[in-house]
Amino acid sequence: MSDSNQEPIVSPRLSPGARAWRRFLDNRPATAAATFLLLLVVLSLAVPVLSPHASAEGSDAQFASPSFSHWWGTDIHGRDVMTRVFAGARLSFLVGAVGAGVSLVIGVCWGMVAGYAGGRLDGAMMRFVDVLYSLPSIVFVIVLITTLEDHLRGFLSHLSPQAGGVARMVFLFFGLGAVSWLTMARIVRGQVLSLRTRPFVLASRALGAGHARILFRHILPNVAGVVIVYLTLTVPGIILYESFLSYLGLGIQPPQASLGTLIAEGAAQINPIRTYWWLIAFPGGVLASALLALNLLGDGLRDALDPRLG
Length: 310
Hints:
The chain has one domain (16-48, 79-309): MetI-like fold (Orthogonal Bundle), CATH 1.10.3720.10. The two termini are 29 Å apart. It is mainly alpha-helical. It is 71% helix and 0% strand. Helix 8 packs across helix 9, helix 9 runs parallel beside helix 10 and helix 10 packs antiparallel against helix 11 (278-304). The chain has eleven helices and no strands.
């Protein structure tokens, strides 16, 4: 008679990727978070297009509370809050994805070169990272956005009236990514330092493989798991940065909206006479739930890709 408490046997014929995928599927919080994020992305793409209230002109239903006509109520201009929240979520997710991509490229390349080269070059590159760590990153982004925008505003206004807003978004994307790569670089460097003396790297070097081939063909695949996990934790950080800047009026500008600008608009309507709670509750709830889901997804990927689990 078999023991009911015996752990299930995982077939040794499964590839490491298949075993990692099975471990991820067995992690219920992670799979629920991934499903929720997928649903949120689909809604952020579909609702602003398919909603009957997609027009930005609004209506006479100013500050209407949630009802069957407007499920999440309306704002000061009579615009449907649910439509605006999902449109704002789409822009916030775009900022998070692009900023994390910039962080990924800079951090991985910097960390791999520093860890693989070692010696004085490694020391100089990491001291530069330490200097950047000592600077307040959010202040650096604010200075970057305001300085570049002031210098380019006149030139861009001659090209197109919308060029100034597009330029600010581009600066926001790359500015947030440019200050979020430091931890990624340190993590990748530490991994590369432990890999560069492994037998498979030494064998490749002995066979005459070039440095670029060793880095991108042999070392990068072995640090990909750690990079993917940290990337899922970078996205919510960048979304929070963007929301904070937009709340201060330094991020996304009207008529475009992000979750941060929607929260700022809702906070501006708080007064002792009446609180229009839906203007803060719904964008704040979407932002909080998305950040929680991203963190749960990162935890699940960390456990699934842990090499110690085989």
